[in-house]
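Sequence in, structure out. Go.
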Amino acid sequence: MSDDTERLLYQDAQVRVIARCPPMTILLVGEVDLTNSQELARTLRCSWNGGEPLVVDTGALTFVDLSGLRVLALPALPPEDRWIRLINLTPCQKRLLELMGWRQEARARPLA
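Output:
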């Protein structure tokens, strides 16, 4: 028997947002665009505990527009302040993010 659990966090006609544990991972299934990107942002923000980055699996997204990429990539924040870590990016998602000038790796923070 598996200890893995899934919980539906949000669903509309285009996308499902599912929390998987352990370890905590958010799975996105379907399409994200201007019609649901704000709700996705709210759902992700409510799912983050304020500590470690929230791991978001985008491998099952069949479409994501610029509004969705902005929610997921947090381009306005420097890499060390981004609280979402993307996994399973598709080649198309990677290319779009590269065109935005985005990079995922956080720089090492200086020691106090």
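Check: Helices lie at 37-47, 66-73, 91-99. Strands lie at 5-11, 15-21, 25-32, 54-64, 84-87.
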